Amino acid sequence: MIRHPDNTNLILHSDSSFQNWPVQEDKGPFIQQYLNRLQQTMQCALAQYPRVFAFRVDLRLPVGTQLPEYAYTNQVIERFIESFKAKIKHNRNMARQSNPYAHDSKVRYVWARELGQHGKPHHHLAILLNYDAFASLGKFALGRDNIFNRLVAAWASALGLSIEAASGLVEIPSNHYYHLHRDDLAGQAVFFHRTSYLCKAATKVYGDGQHSFGCSRD
Q1: Domain map of the chain by residue range?
Q2: Which of 16, 41, 106, 172 is packed most tightly, with the most Cβ within 10 A?
């Protein structure tokens, strides 16, 4: 058992798999506790919904823009998540007005806070929703009623910026979405492997008063 030199509460994990789930071995070592929480988040989503829409998104801070102090703390990702949850809840409430049987969706998530080359934090996230409520991000164009625009609006709200100013700060990586099925372990393994990147030890900072990793609790 090897502990992280900057935070001895954390255990480093260097194997090619974690509890039989594959990880991006070349990105290791990983934090064992983070891998465990990622696995729990995925399993909680699939325990509630037989099909899950999971996707990756990266959130960045603007260059040359004055931001409130909280933008550099964990408060900014907390604000983003609460805003995004509210937008999902509103969408489902509106959907039930036209269809009483419209599916609901809990928002589950995993996030990692990392520091870039210039010491500015950015966040990597994986978000998991009920596939029967949401199955795609939609077109990556402002002004549409889709998940992408809710992400941009939530990040704008968290930073206190306009939608237009925040649009370029929400990055959707390639191969960003996954349709997980409760009985498809192979598909779950692909998602776990991709998202294990969030659990790597590198580029995370400890001792500055901020958490480097977080996830939904149930």
Answers
A1: 2-215
A2: 41
Q: Which two tokens stand for residue 114?
A: 């990392």
DSSP state of 83: H
For the chain, first and last CA: distance in Å?
A: 28
Contact call for residues 179 and 131 (beta carbons, < 8 A): yes
Q: Which helix (H) or strand (E) holds 43?
A: helix 32-48
Contacts from 163-170 at CB under 8 Å and sequence distance 24+?
165/62, 165/65, 167/142, 169/59, 169/60, 169/61, 169/62, 170/57, 170/58, 170/59
Going by the DSSP 8-state scheme, the letter that residue 104 receives in this structure is P
Burial of 63 (0-12, 13-18, 19+ CB in 10 A): exposed
Q: Indicate yes or no: pTM above 0.90.
A: yes
The strand pair at 213-215 and 108-115 is best described as antiparallel
Using CA atoms, how far apart are residues 99 and 95, in angstroms rounded to an integer? 6
d(CA 154, CA 91): 14
Q: If 0-12 CB within 10 Å is exposed, 13-18 middle and 19+ buried, where does residue 130 land? A: buried
Q: Per residue of the chain (218 residues), give pLDDT as tens.
A: 889 887 878 999 999 999 999 999 999 899 999 999 999 999 999 999 999 999 999 999 998 888 999 999 999 999 999 999 999 999 999 999 999 999 999 999 999 999 887 778 999 999 999 999 999 999 999 999 999 999 999 999 999 999 999 989 999 999 999 999 999 999 999 999 999 999 999 988 887 788 999 999 88
